[in-house]
Amino acid sequence: MSVMIAAFMRGVTRLNDVIGRWVALLIFAMFAFLLLEVGFRYLFNSPTVWTNELTQMLFGVYAVMSGGYIMAHRGHVNVDLLHSHLRPRKRAALDIVTSLVFFIFTLALLWFGIDMAQESMSSWETSYSAWNPPIWPVKLAIPIGTALLVLQGLVKLLEDIAVAFNLDYYTPQQSESEGDQL
Fold first, then answer.
1. How many helices (H) and strands (E) does the chain have?
2. Could you give the C-alpha distances from 61 to 67, 117, 164, in angstroms and in order?
3. Looking at the 3D structure of the chain, how many domains does it have?
4. Count of alpha carbons within 13 Å of 55, Cβ hemisphere only?
5. What is the pLDDT of residues 70-89, one digit of tens each?
6. Residue 79 region by backbone torsions, left for phi larger than 0, else alpha for psi between -120 and 50, else beta
7. Parent domain of 62
8. What pLDDT, in 10s, does the model give residues 3-58?
9. CA–CA distance, 39 with 30 (Å, rounded to integer)
10. Which end of the chain is more exposed for a tag (fewer CB within 10 A), N or C?
């Protein structure tokens, strides 16, 4: 059983790591599109109608799809006035209690995100702008990214349970338990 739990945890973290690294490349596309817009606007006096909107849509996908990766690498901002002064087992126990808030929020986001994506896909929703691109793919990214975040949250909960109760299926590494140091 503990082998399956550990494999699940590694698999989810690996999935979020791969997706996060690919999604990070969207930064280069957004940069290129904005640079292109500036060039067309100021060098050729011919602004485009699509670059700003496309960049906003790419940023939306970038933001929602990166949540699991950021959680896997302990990159989310947290208030740790009490948290940082606790020993690892007590810190894990506190994280178990507070994970309830995380799961309430993310599962609600997943529920409503699925509904919004289904509605958008059923009508092939577009932006109704001058360019009028489809926006259903961006809305579809919301439940997908949220599902990845929920899965990574489950991994974090399993890690916290293992640390709090001294279980053998998870042994924290220094980099994982402390997060990235600046």
1. 7, 0
2. 11, 13, 35
3. 1
4. 17
5. 999 988 887 778 888 889 89
6. beta
7. 2-178
8. 899 899 999 999 999 999 999 999 999 999 999 999 999 999 999 999 999 999 99
9. 14
10. C
